[in-house]
Amino acid sequence: MGYIKSAALEETGYVVLDRYQQELDPKEWLDIEYVDWKSSGDTRFAPLASAKGEIECNGFWNHVPPRTDKDGVWIDSQTALAPNLTRRAQEPGANVGRCRVIELQPNTYADTLYNLHQDDNNRLNPDGTGWVVRGFFNLTDDKDSFFVLRDNRTDPSVEYRIALPAGAQLIVDTQRLWHAATHPGPDPRYCLITSWTSGPELDAYIEKYNGRTNVPNVEVSQDVLDAGQAEQARRDAARAAYYAAKGQAEKTAMSEA
Fold this sequence. Notes:
5 helices, Ectoine hydroxylase-related dioxygenase, phytanoyl-CoA dioxygenase (PhyH) family, eight-stranded antiparallel β-sheet, 2 domains
């Protein structure tokens, strides 16, 4: 049967919406509660909606009963402090799974390439239902920062680099695209991330805010691009060697047992 997906994301896997007037909103992300949760860098997260309405960030499939990233439960203590962020997450009218603010400490382009990852949004998602994608609303004014999207983690031939000023708004099929953010800093970057279920509501929202693909890439010098690619390869090789050695040690220990 296949999943219900948004045609707007079919070509590239992402759309950029009209920029939001973030400067008109209070800095609600500074008032909510964060928990340590690592994802593609030195990060913390402040959940607004979670599996059971608790201040935690675990995948919904890790709860009892396990389920896909849909039907998130809003956390009253958090949404009371962040009503504007909650309103923005709910505006499309699409089903919301996890909803949280990420706090990302400064990093480099090389860090970003090493940390590129895909999300497991649709684990346990029944065939014939809406495909889960994610919205990214940049909250801080990170003029030198950019989101990196790739079809293939180690292949730079297709790399989208999306600017992240305050109010930048993206919707990304993060199970399809490898993604992470480059954030030179010096202060932390904050971004609202919402899991939405694809369907007519999300399609209408994308159309309302003029969702578009193939926006101009952030310009990065070739030296930085090449150095980042080389560092990604170096770190990948070091990680592979570490786990290979660890696997050999575990095998030896098991054989000795």
